[in-house]
Amino acid sequence: MPRRAHNKMPTSVKKRYFELLREGHKGAAAARMVGVSTSCGSLWFLDAGG
Q1: In this structure, what are the phi and psi dihedrals at residue 32, rounded to the nearest 5 degrees?
Q2: Residues of the domain holding 18
Q3: Which of 4, 7, 9, 42 is least crowded, fewest Cβ atoms below 10 Å from its Cβ?
Q4: What is the pTM of this model?
């Protein structure tokens, strides 16, 4: 059974999160800038392969 809910954020938010990471922002700052929790950003990062 899945432990987490499906992501309800638009794809554009996730894309912007990764753009911010590539620009050099830390994960917590990037998550804050796009309006998601740090844990959500961390899950996106881990799901993408780290």
Answers
A1: -60, -40
A2: 11-47
A3: 4
A4: 0.82
